[in-house]
Write a structure and sequence with these properties.
By secondary structure, the protein is mostly helical. The chain has nine helices and four strands, in the order ββββααααααααα.
Length: 236
């Protein structure tokens, strides 16, 4: 059974983050292992937490994965749907740029509304995430074997969805350079996604640091490879 809370400094399990006394007095609980506050992030603004999460700080990842009660399961489902749609839109946008040298001088608003190619890219996006998450799930289950539980499955799914936010950073590239692909920017976002997956899996305590990096890299590369094969042979 996975503990509800986690010390963001050492990763040890914790029963609570703070203790509430009468008259509104709140005492931050200290970790029994490292003697540091279990989670100092509970006193910070959400924006600061998000900045540290994007900067790939391990403490911020532990805080987000274990110590935020307000991120419910339905929020994770909604975020996963948003990531799939964003990924599909990015693929669709690049498809249009491959077909036309420039879309700026085209009446593309009406053309896009009638374009059915988006649905093929949506299928590819769903397939890519299924392969990526599925491979990491298989590696995790094989590593844990008999110790795998439903709670670990939920934790791993939560970890993978939250660490996929690097895909969202591609959207500004489409706004700043709509008439061509910014390969350097795409490469940076790709590397960031791998590192974010690696840090989140390491923070989840389901993988070691090395296995987090290897499983993330292999899963992302294989998912993109299989989707590229499907895209080349697709008749949609």
């Amino acid at each position: 059974m996975i503990s509800n809370y986690c010390c963001v400094t050492c990763g040890a399990e914790a029963d609570e983050l703070s203790h509430h006394y009468k008259e509104g007095v709140i005492k931050i609980i200290h970790c029994k292992e490292c003697q540091n506050p279990v989670d100092p992030y509970i006193e910070l603004d959400d924006l600061l937490v998000f900045i540290d999460f994007v900067l790939l700080k391990l403490r911020a990842h532990r805080h987000v994965l274990f110590n935020i009660d307000k991120i419910k399961y339905n929020h994770i489902i909604k975020l996963s749907c948003a990531l799939i749609l964003v990924n599909a839109y990015i693929k669709w946008f690049h498809l249009k740029n491959d077909q036309f040298q420039s879309i700026i001088n085209q009446d593309h608003h009406i053309f896009y509304a009638l374009e059915y190619g988006f649905y093929s890219k949506l299928f590819e996006s769903v397939l890519e995430y299924i392969i990526r998450f599925g491979l990491i799930f298989i590696i995790a289950i094989l590593q844990c074997r008999q110790k795998w539980t439903k709670e670990k499955s939920i934790l791993l799914f939560r970890t993978l969805v939250l660490s996929s936010i690097g895909q969202l950073f591609v959207l500004p590239l489409l706004i700043w350079s709509p008439d061509h692909r910014d390969y350097y920017g795409l490469l940076i976002c790709f590397i960031f996604t791998i590192l974010c997956h690696t840090q989140a899996l390491n923070a989840s305590r389901l993988f070691s640091s090395l296995m987090s990096f290897l499983s993330s890299t292999i899963a992302i590369l294989l998912s993109k490879y299989f989707v590229s094969i499907v895209s080349q042979n697709s008749f949609l």
